[in-house]
Write a structure and sequence with these properties.
The complex is a heterodimer of chains A (111) and B (112).
Chain A lengths: L2 E4 L4 E4 L4 E3 L1 E4 L5 E7 L5 E7 L5 E4 L2 E4 L9 E3 L8 E8 L5 E3 L3 E6 L1
Parallel strand pairs in A: 2-12
Antiparallel strand pairs in A: 1-4, 3-9, 5-6, 5-10, 7-8, 8-9, 10-11, 10-12
Chain B lengths: L3 E4 L2 E4 L5 E7 L5 E7 L5 E9 L2 E4 L6 E3 L9 E3 L8 E8 L7 E2 L3 E5 L1
Parallel strand pairs in B: 2-11
Antiparallel strand pairs in B: 1-3, 3-8, 4-5, 4-9, 5-6, 7-8, 9-10, 9-11
């Protein structure tokens, strides 16, 4: 079946540091890939997505590239802010027509 | 403003009690979903509905029930058969097959 594996957190960074959150997946066919963000006490917000190999999704300074050869979709940001502190979820939409989520990675950015 | 609303924000359940969580959307989306989130876990699908008057079980449907009488509304009932109901419940909606889903703010259910 489909699965998503994210790097375990928590991740703690200083403001303006570079962020990478790793995500790898297992799926049959050609899934679409997503990053969602969850701020404390809130629902999930779609951050970015990519629907085919080599696509790059980007939003609010975050970006991720769909790498089929390594089955990965790592999230990156060049300079994080305190306001980026949240839980980040990697997810895939597969041939079973369902969203499969990773367990989430907690990011804390200190001033 | 278009969006998804969930109520209440917090809900307390007594032993043996059924409780209902509300989810409403004004995005004109056909499909709606219920997920359960436990600490340190990803989201798990409880039920989903792709059209009015039709719904399907997700991965963890036992102890839950739903209805879809209107396009805008997809209430979830947590029954007394759900022995471990404490969790954060998220409703989502989408157009088309459901690839891009939009989430509500969630309801936190606690057991007294």
């Amino acid at each position: 079946g489909n699965s998503v594996t994210q790097m375990e957190g928590p991740v703690t960074l200083s403001e303006e540091a570079f962020l990478t959150i790793n995500c790898t997946y297992t799926a049959t066919g050609y899934p679409s890939l997503f990053w969602y963000v969850q701020y404390p006490g809130e629902g999930l917000q779609l951050l970015l997505k990519a629907t085919k190999a080599d696509d790059k999704g980007s939003n609010k300074g975050f970006e991720a590239t769909y790498r089929k050869e390594t089955t990965s979709f790592h999230l990156e940001k060049g300079s994080v802010q305190v306001s980026d502190s949240a839980v980040y979820f990697c997810a895939l939409w597969g041939s079973n027509y369902k969203l499969t989520f990773g367990k989430g990675t907690l990011l804390t950015v200190n001033p | 403003d278009g969006g998804i609303t969930q109520s209440p924000k917090y809900l307390f359940r007594k032993e043996g009690q059924n409780v209902t969580l509300s989810c409403e959307q004004n995005l004109n989306h056909d499909a709606m979903y219920w997920y359960r989130q436990d600490p340190g876990q990803g989201l798990r699908l409880i039920y989903y509905s792709q059209i009015v008057n039709d719904f399907q079980k997700g991965d963890i449907a036992e102890g839950y029930s739903v209805s879809r009488e209107k396009k805008e509304s997809f209430p979830l009932t947590v029954t007394s058969a759900q022995k471990n109901p404490t969790a954060f419940y998220l409703c989502a909606s989408s157009n088309g097959q459901g690839e891009t889903q939009y989430f509500g703010p969630g309801t936190r259910l606690l057991v007294l």
